[in-house]
Amino acid sequence: MFNRSGERETKLTGAIVTFLTESSLKEIADKVAGGERLSFDDGVALFNSNDLNGLGKLADTVRRRQHGRTAYFNVNRHFNPTNVCYVDCKFCGFFRTPRQPDAYTHNIDDSLRIAGQAVSEGATELHITGGLNTKLPFSYFTDLLSSLKQQYPQLHLKAFTMVELDHFTHFYKMRDEDVIQQLIDAGLDSCPGGGAEIFREPTRSMICAHKCDAQRWLDLAGKVHAAGLKTNATMLYGHIESIEDRVDHLIRLREQQDKSGGFQCFIPLAFYPPETQMAHLPGPSGVDSLKTMAVSRLLLDNFAHIKAYWVMLGKRLAQVALHFGANDVDGTITEGGELTESYSVETNNEVRMTKQELIGLIEEAGFEAVERDTVYNRVEKATIA
């Protein structure tokens, strides 16, 4: 990256500093250019900066140094086996109690039908998450995976957050390692990053009191990594959390990545208030979302990929986020499932884009659209036909 005389470092620092208007950002830019890890205080300073253009330029410089003009997407489908859940998170508009009229649990035939539709549309990934339903045996989940894998072996099954794994181990009285291995044997290929929400207390207990705590979430991620699978990581922002909560969250993820190395992508999730117990809150602004994207890129120096999840950001803001550190926009979703519909910011809770629409979205933003599989192998260089 740098030559022995430091010429590359000096050139990079000078190019960035030209765009900065705050002295605190200039000091952080020097650290970034020198490959120095940013501190907690640096993270707070970045969030508190009013130099949005400078912050974006700093994050974009790091992003382009790693990925050039490449922006990834995939063809995927979300599937939520059940919306029955006892956790009662205040930010969730998806969960139902067993007696509510719109509570549901899909059977195996439903899952195979949905997966078949996804495959017919070119999907390479089925993203599976759902409620913590105490009426289901553990065999429901292993049978679900094995049936899907047997019928559609080409589908990558990205299933079950760390919160779901924690539920499995406690409710079914099984060892963590046994739960993970039995799911792998049934067909599990990787895990999504949901359930992280905000790690820091007391905020975590205020928004999701019945979920596993931060250290448990991180420990389980480490065990999944040790078993040979990749996972993602998330952070829910724009509700009651503080800037310090966000920075703490990012640094804990960075520390876990140093230990286990299995996180492949970080996804900042913009809180969507309607139909939740926190519907009185406004949710994050566009500026806040762009800052969060940029700070994530700068603090998470050991995460290769930062995702601008278009469903929660909106299509237009996701385009801009590609200039603020993001190098991925997620996928087509193709009828995204009940959970995704509950938090989509698009008109009529839209959760679907065609492959060509996604490519156009990326190319209009000035980037090269590259279709990937779940673990970031290139499927093909994508262009609009």
- Percent of residues in beta strands: 5-15%
Can you list the strand order of the major beta sheet? 8-1-9-10
Cα distance, first to last residue? 37 Å
Give the overall pLDDT as a whole number. 89
Query: How many beta strands in the DSSP annotation?
Result: 10
CATH class of the largest domain: Alpha Beta
Categorize the overall geometry: globular
Quaternary arrangement of the chains shown?
single chain
- In sequence order, what are the helices and strands, one letter per element? HHHHEEHEHEHHHHEHEHEHHEHHEE
Question: What is the CATH homologous superfamily assignment of the largest domain?
Answer: Aldolase class I
Query: Which regions have little confidence, pLDDT < 50, spanning 5+ residues?
Result: 1-10, 339-344
What's the CATH topology label of the largest domain? TIM Barrel
Helix content: 40-55%
Structural category is: alpha/beta
Tally of separate domains = 2
Gyration radius, in Å:
20 Å
What's the helix count? 16
Reported for the largest beta sheet, the result is:
4 strands, mixed
Characteristics:
385 residues; alpha/beta; TIM Barrel; four-stranded mixed β-sheet; three-stranded parallel β-sheet; 12% strand; disordered N terminus
Description of the structure:
The chain has helices at 7-17, 23-33, 40-48, 52-67, 108-120, 138-151, 162-171, 176-186, 203-207, 214-226, 243-260, 286-299, 310-313, 315-321, 337-343, 355-364, and strands at residues 70-74, 76-79, 125-128, 156-159, 231-237, 263-270, 305-306, 328-331, 368-372, 378-381. Helix 4 crosses helix 12 and helix 6 runs parallel beside helix 8. The protein folds into two domains: 7-67, no CATH class; 70-381, Aldolase class I (TIM Barrel). With 385 residues, the chain is an alpha/beta fold. The chain is built from 16 helices and ten strands. Strands 8-1-9-10 form a four-stranded mixed β-sheet, with helices on one face. The chain has a three-stranded parallel β-sheet with strand order 2-3-4. Strands 5-6-7 form a three-stranded parallel β-sheet.
